[in-house]
Design brief:
The structure holds 2 protein chains of 2 kinds.
Chain A lengths: L2 H31 L4 H28 L2 H33 L9 H30 L1
Helix pairs in contact in A: 1-2, 1-4, 3-4
Chain B lengths: L4 E4 L1 H7 L5 H8 L3 H8 L7 H11 L3 H4 E4 L1
Antiparallel strand pairs in B: 1-2
The chains are: A mainly alpha, B mainly alpha.
Chain lengths: 140, 70
């Protein structure tokens, strides 16, 4: 298995696991303190930010080990996944506020969940694009 | 937009250099074997530093290894 392929699979699995872990931890804390409104955002940040920083460091170390072609593929995949993430957020915001009817109809607890779903979706897109590039390499 | 294509003689040069493998060339220039394959097939245009490292690995100039097809 090539370095890129391994990276794609590991990151997709890691993001999936972190996604579940962050949600479980956050929800446990939410239930414990019976949080509402802005507290919910702080708790999600409290759990999410350290995890994000650790992931960034691991990612950056791996990225530096890649050669220039691999870096180009990763950047291309990241760009597309960022577009998917932004598109998802816009779609989510539009559907939330124009179709369903705004904050009154959506429990606030679903907001961070939806953002995390977006992150997971973005990661899946990134991994998928990297795997497509690897498949092209394998075919040649 | 430019439609220039970068061709190269890496494959021939590898065979001339005691049938150097793609892996050993990759290790010499500090990239993966997949990158060498992509460069050989013209699917990837290397950066100038990498092109120079490849040329140096064969003891040639960049122009002897890479040619610009217009």
């Amino acid at each position: 298995m090539t370095r890129l392929k391994k990276k794609a699979w590991v990151e997709m699995a890691a993001t999936g696991i972190l996604f579940v872990l962050i949600l479980i931890q956050s929800f446990l804390r939410l239930v414990q303190v019976n949080a509402q409104g802005i507290h919910l955002v702080f708790i999600m940040l409290f759990v999410g930010v350290p995890t994000g920083v650790i992931m960034y460091h691991i990612e950056y170390r791996r990225f530096r080990q890649c050669d220039e072609r691999e870096k180009k593929i990763i950047c291309k995949a990241f760009l597309i996944s960022a577009f998917v993430f932004i598109f998802y957020l816009i779609l989510f915001s539009l559907s939330a506020f124009f179709l369903i009817g705004g904050s009154g109809n959506i429990p606030v607890v679903f907001m961070p969940t939806m953002v995390l779903v977006g992150v997971f979706l973005g990661q899946c897109t990134q991994s998928f694009i990297i795997l497509i590039e690897c498949a092209k390499d394998d075919n040649e | 937009m430019s439609k220039d294509r970068l061709s190269n003689t890496i494959r021939r040069l590898r065979f001339d250099a005691d049938e150097m493998t793609q892996q050993s060339l990759a290790e010499k220039v500090g990239v993966t074997r997949q990158t060498i394959i992509a460069i050989e097939q013209g699917r990837y245009a290397p950066s100038l530093p990498l092109a120079m490292r490849i040329a140096r690995a064969f003891g040639k100039t960049v122009e002897e290894v890479f040619q610009l097809e217009e």
